[in-house]
């Protein structure tokens, strides 16, 4: 039975951290909210699941979530780890396996912070209603948080005892797919800032290039299953929030 | 060898989600940053570990982190899950085991949102420098986010097929310890709002009471290992941010 992945259609968002693992592993899945309602899909099907209609399983707090039989997994980092560990995209050694989970949750934190740049006052308001606050938060994000996160990824790759060019363990894992997506998102949202910072993080960018060249990832990018970044998503390009 | 837990001294913060599992499981640990420097403790020891001084392991992005031999685990939710799964405080059944992880990460998200109420513009500024923004964010947090999170926990308990009064599975797990800590933190930070909301979430509060009465948790609370909430922490009581 293929996995059912549920996430908002029309944006990569947090769902992409699950989708990339499914795609890189070559695992069959249905992207339920993007399917026609006639096939049991659509946003209505996702919302029905979230309030427990038609099933007895636990309720996810928010999309994305993954369903297979009685299994319900929510939170992008937990889904990515679960899929990576079951489909050959996680380290084998116990200590590395656990640390990969730490990385994925930290990446989810970075994603939340990238989101909060344009929604510092709250998710219930439009960006247009919190622009002054967003301007202040964006400055801190660009100047302090981005280098802190990116420097951490860079240090992990540099210290990896396998010298594999990856974040943890000897091979590409779901943690690396997460970094790849984050670098793409930051480059979309903050192109000027990322151009300034790029030379400081050569290992992280080399790893992202390696992920981008994986045949399954390249095929996914070229397919209509992939959605581009846009201003409904987590990573939004508002030029007034970017600076070198 | 006992675990080494590293977290900022003087506040429960995110470290408490790891500490409660260690305490409830009766597992020996050193709270390193609270130890004297003569015993290899202190904040300096924590900061040295974070920049990789004296070890070859991976670097945690931020406290809390847990170290045992070559194992380094960071992120409160990942630490809590790791400890719970290794020390009898996690569900046994695979689907429940995974969903407990989803709960813990969602709880960490709630903690991050509770923090951002008083730091909406960024962690690099004092609360006093972002009071107007905090007032706006607090209103949304109280009115929209708190009921959303609390209602979700309540629904999980109500739907738990074991009818165990817990969030997932037949017994108390690390996920329940997290809910316990979050309810305490919210009651500290937003006493008026929590009094209004309390009748809506009887199952969640009953579960927290049950956790509070666990002999090891009660003994921990009475010990000098436990730190009270305060205005250096995640959950801060600023009366101007609270309302019924």
**Count of separate DSSP helical elements of chain A:** 9
Main-sheet strand order of chain A equals: 2-1-3-4
Which structural class do you get from the secondary structure elements of chain A? alpha+beta
What proportion of the residues of chain A form beta strands (DSSP E)?
5-15%
- Can you count the beta strands of chain A? 4
The geometry of chain A reads as: globular
Q: Of all protein chain pairs, which has the greatest interface, and how many residues does each chain bring to it?
A: A-B, 54 and 54 residues
Intertermini distance of chain A: 48 Å
What percentage of residues of chain A falls in helices of 4 or more residues? 40-55%
Rg of Cα set of chain A: 18 Å
Low-confidence blocks of residues of chain A: none
Encode the helix/strand succession of chain A as letters.
EHEHEEHHHHHHH
Q: How many domains would you count in the coordinates of chain A?
A: 2
Short synopsis of the structure:
The structure is a homodimer of 244-residue chains. The first copy, chain A, is an alpha+beta fold. The first copy, chain A, has helices at 15-25, 43-50, 76-86, 94-118, 131-159, 174-189, 191-197, 202-212, 215-222, and strands spanning 3-6, 29-31, 65-68, 71-74.
Describe the protein's architecture and organization.
Chains A, B: This is Glutathione S-transferase. Chains A, B: It comes from Antarcticirhabdus aurantiaca. Two copies of one chain form a homodimer. By secondary structure, the first copy, chain A, is α+β, with helices and mostly antiparallel strands. Chain A has two domains: 3-86, Glutaredoxin (3-Layer(aba) Sandwich), CATH 3.40.30; 94-214, Glutathione S-transferase Yfyf (Class Pi), Chain A, domain 2. Chain A contains nine helices and four strands, in the order βαβαββααααααα. The first copy, chain A, has helices at 15-25, 43-50, 76-86, 94-118, 131-159, 174-189, 191-197, 202-212, 215-222; strands at residues 3-6, 29-31, 65-68, 71-74. A four-stranded mixed sheet of chain A has the order 2-1-3-4, with helices on one face. The first copy, chain A, starts with a strand and ends in a 22-residue tail after the last helix. The model of chain A has no long low-confidence stretch (mean pLDDT 96). Chains A and B meet through β4, α3, α4 and α5 of A and β4, α3, α4 and α5 of B.
């Amino acid at each position: 039975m293929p996995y059912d992945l549920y996430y908002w259609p029309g944006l990569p968002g947090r769902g992409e951290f699950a989708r990339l693992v499914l795609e890189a592993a070559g695992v069959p899945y249905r992207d339920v909210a993007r399917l026609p309602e006639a096939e049991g899909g659509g946003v209505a099907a996702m919302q029905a699941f979230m309030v427990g209609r038609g099933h007895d399983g636990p309720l996810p707090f928010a999309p994305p979530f993954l369903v297979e039989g009685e299994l319900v997994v929510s939170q992008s980092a937990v889904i990515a780890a679960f899929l990576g560990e079951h489909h050959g995209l996680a380290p084998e050694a116990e200590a590395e396996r656990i640390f990969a989970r730490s990385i994925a949750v930290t990446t989810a934190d970075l994603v939340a912070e990238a989101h909060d740049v344009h929604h510092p006052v709250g998710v219930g308001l439009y960006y247009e209603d919190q622009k002054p606050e967003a301007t202040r938060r964006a400055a801190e994000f660009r100047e302090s948080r981005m280098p802190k996160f990116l420097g951490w990824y860079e240090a992990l790759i540099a210290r990896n005892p396998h010298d594999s060019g990856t974040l943890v363990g000897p091979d590409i894992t779901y943690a690396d797919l997460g970094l790849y997506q984050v670098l793409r998102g930051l480059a979309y949202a903050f192109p000027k800032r990322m151009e300034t910072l790029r030379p400081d993080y050569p290992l992280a960018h080399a790893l992202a290039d390696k992920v981008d060249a994986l045949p399954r990832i390249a095929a996914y990018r070229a397919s209509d299953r992939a959605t581009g970044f846009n201003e409904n998503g987590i990573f939004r390009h508002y030029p007034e929030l970017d600076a070198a």
